[in-house]
Design goal:
By secondary structure, the protein is mainly alpha-helical. The protein is built from 13 helices and 9 strands.
Length: 366
């Protein structure tokens, strides 16, 4: 009669313990010899699949018992697991145990984190929209309407122009936008200073402004500013936008020629006097001509490129003033190349045609 060896389940507990030790720790004995020693009915390459789990020195944090591990090869163990609750201890931080105890612990930790977020970000003193200056109202409302229809939550992910973050940061700094206590926990970094470290591009922000229903309705219809702002304030903001646009234009024209531009405070205040005697279109025209002239002066060696950043604005102002005193006629440039901010203010807020930039702007025009 053909004889077949034993299965592992036929061994006594003492034999099983000895078998595991021989296979895992005693490298001097071969697998073939182990099979023969314990009279087992397994092939050499399949024995490891049927070996009992080996007890480890790891202790289950929930059951306080030694954890076992599956033998993967001679001297190689799989992750320790608890034979009572099924908890697995992973070495890699990105692998998480999903036993019932770990799932419950995660729920409790998330509750604690949620409480910390609520405590850190739920108390903010609200600001009345009507108390803000016109320029801030415009920036704030434009940001909100890009992102939200309810005037409650601001979502930066809905902002599609990267340069808008410069404006957003300023609004956050002034607490017009504040980190929302309703944010998902994953938006915050899991560290000792939780919840004060977070990804500013991922978190949602509370709109920390109080709007009346009338204000909301008018802003959504883009009619608020034409009804609520006085002409003098509109004129001041228009001049601010014009000056910012002119400075950006002059800077770009110099950069196109490999030259740099720096706004010196005294020269800037001097330059602003031009807006009382020239239109935006005329000033743009002169900035284009002066950028070309300065570049020619640098090429000819009459001016050093190192001097251009600090002298360009004052030089341009003096040259324009000198020309006006000589009776120059200055043509208007094409005003439709004005940047987005200036165009939006004129067409959507003032509800005027862009051609107003072909005249010196005054309160009566608004």
């Amino acid at each position: 009669m053909f004889y077949m060896g034993r299965k592992i389940e036929d061994l006594s507990e003492k034999e099983k313990f000895a078998l595991v030790n021989d296979y895992f720790e005693n490298k001097e004995i071969s697998v073939t010899e182990i099979i023969k020693k314990y009279d087992l009915d397994y092939k050499k390459n399949e024995l490891v699949r049927f070996l009992p789990y080996k007890e480890t020195t790891e202790i289950c944090p929930y059951c306080n018992v030694s954890m076992n591990a599956k033998i993967k090869g001679r001297g190689i163990l799989d992750y320790p697991s608890c034979w009572i609750c099924g908890h697995i201890k992973y070495n890699e931080s990105y692998m998480k145990c999903e036993c019932n105890n770990c799932r419950q612990l995660l729920v409790e930790e998330q509750k604690k984190k949620r409480c910390l977020i609520e405590a850190a970000y739920s108390q903010n003193e609200k600001i009345n929209f009507s108390d803000l200056d016109l320029k801030t109202q415009i920036k704030l409302s434009r940001m909100i309407l890009k992102s939200s229809s309810d005037f409650i939550i601001f979502d930066p992910n809905k902002i599609d122009v990267i340069n808008d973050w410069e404006v957003i940061d300023k609004l956050i700094e002034k607490k017009y936008f504040t980190v929302s206590s309703k944010n998902d926990i994953t938006a915050f970094e899991d560290c000792d200073k939780f919840p004060y470290y977070y990804n500013k591009y991922r978190v949602l922000y509370d709109i920390n402004i109080v709007f009346s229903e009338e204000e909301k309705e008018l802003l959504c219809k883009n009619r608020y500013f034409c009804q609520k702002s006085d002409r003098l304030e509109k004129l001041k903001v228009l001049k601010d936008y014009i000056h910012k646009d002119v400075m950006n234009y002059f800077k770009k024209e110099l950069l196109r020629r490999g030259l740099y531009f720096e706004i010196m405070p005294a020269a800037e205040e001097e330059f602003k006097k031009l807006y009382e005697i020239l239109s935006y279109g005329q000033i743009i025209n002169q900035c284009y001509g002066m950028a070309r002239h300065i570049s020619d002066q640098v090429i000819s060696g009459r001016i050093s490129s190192y001097d251009v950043p600090k002298m360009a604005l004052h030089y341009t102002y003096c040259s324009i003033l000198k020309g006006l005193n000589k009776g120059w006629h200055i043509n208007n440039s094409d005003v439709f190349f004005a940047e987005r901010e200036l165009q939006d203010f004129i067409t959507n807020i003032l509800r005027k045609d862009m051609t107003i930039l072909n005249s010196v702007v005054t309160e009566d025009m608004l």
